[in-house]
Amino acid sequence: MRFSDLTPIELSVLSQSSVYSNSQPRPRIHDRQLDWRRLYTLINDNSEQLLEVKAGLAEDWVRTHGTVWDVKQGFHRRPNDTYDYDDTVFWGYSSWATPAIVVTFADEREAAFALYTHGKDYNYHYLGYGQLD
After folding, report:
1. What residue segments make up the domains of the chain, in order of their start?
2. Superkingdom, according to UniProt (predicted)?
3. Dihedral sign, CA of 47, 50, 54, 57?
4. Which of 35, 45, 92, 124 has fewest C-beta within 10 Å?
5. Which stretches in the chain have pLDDT values below 70?
6. Please, are residues 11 and 67 in contact by the beta-carbon 8 Å criterion?
7. Residues with Cβ < 8 Å from 16, sequence gap 6 or more?
8. Predicted local confidence at residue 133, as pLDDT
9. Strand locations in 14-126, DSSP E?
């Protein structure tokens, strides 16, 4: 699978939002989750061209992104990992925003892509596909 097969996306930052407010219901526009299968395949098929892959929500990138994979550590989570804080905290599901990835290539170029499918899986299940290195 190639990154050229994906749709580029612009990242945004919400300065103020009622989306995170407990006093108002969250918007319900769709059920989109990261496409874990394609994410896993993209990383494994292109790892020699990558430095880092982050995931989050395109419409509020700053508050929702975290590192999924990098060239030094590989995948940042394994199945059944504990949920201690690290840079791997990210949102992989949204009822209002677009799950996306930002890729830093080996030549240090960065690109953002929408990468979602229908569903509500926000967890680290992308690591469950195939054999891990």
Report:
1. 3-13+29-78+88-120
2. Bacteria
3. negative
4. 45
5. 15-24, 26, 77-89, 122-133
6. no
7. none
8. 39
9. 32-34, 50-57, 66-70, 74-75, 93-94, 99-105, 110-114, 116-118
Give the chain's largest Cα–Cα span. Answer: 46
Q: How far is CA 82 from CA 76, 79, 85, 98, 128, in A?
A: 12, 9, 9, 26, 16
Query: Nearest Cα to 75, choosing from 1, 127, 3, 129?
Result: 127
pLDDT digits (tens, 9 = 90+) for 84-116: 545 456 778 888 899 999 999 999 999 999 999
H-helix or E-strand containing 36? Answer: helix 36-46
Tokens 């061209």 correspond to 49
Q: What is the pLDDT of residue 124?
A: 54
Contact, 98 vs 118, CB < 8 A?
no
119: tokens are 């569903």
